[in-house]
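Predict both folds.
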Amino acid sequence: MVKVLFVCLGNICRSPTAEGVFRFHANNAGIKDGFTQNMYIDSAGTAGFHMAAPPDKRAQLTALKFGVDIGELQARKVAPQDYNDFDYILAMDEDNMSKMLQNCPTEHQHKIHLFMTFSETSPGITEVPDPYYGDKEDFDKAYDFIDRAAQGFLKHLQKNHSL
């Protein structure tokens, strides 16, 4: 089983959107997720600002516009055990990647990547911009970046993990 964790700061905008979008693409490709399936997909934040809160309403509405329901997800903070448990830990930006690298045991640091590096259609873009303090267009832009990276990451997994 391949285990994937998407990470942003508060786990209410970018990372739950990434979790939902990636799950949507994986399921459409016939890859099911869950503890009894061939993939496990989750998201978390490097800060515990919004523990157990649902995703931001604007993120939910943006995702729903594209057929992705993230309304049942709940925010959580990255736990020390996550570095051991997950195969891929995908940061939405450099700041969160840096925070994780500081906390991650050396033997698991190879699992941490910038999510956008998997996008095949966004050369030079390395971060998903945080839409939290923005407007509808900022959430649309973040969704677009996440969708591009999710599709590229799915191709990466299919190529490298018999999925």
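Second protein follows, with its predicted structure tokens after the sequence.
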Amino acid sequence: MAVKLNRRGEQHARSLIRERQFVADERDAWSEHRPSAKDENRYIEENGFGAYGRWFLGVDDAEPEDTKAHYAFPYSDFERVHRCGLLAAESRAGQYDHHDIELAVAHLHGMIDALA
């Protein structure tokens, strides 16, 4: 697995946070706020994989770009950044030694904490 930081996803998250398009929710809320597989499929069908990829902070170069498996570390509900999604991503990135993703996520949730 060759997962690295998805700069496009990071930039999209930064932009949304600056526009105050975020939810400053609690760490444990991600299981409720994370889009379901059905929601993901509908989003891809309506918007394509290019748009889908903006909502993830990691990409796996070992997987084809036009598959869900290519994208890792979701942070949103396809509308707003969720603090709980960032915290889950930060924890998992640290657990699997994806330090570039972990640092980017720490900055993003710090942006939310400063604005909330």
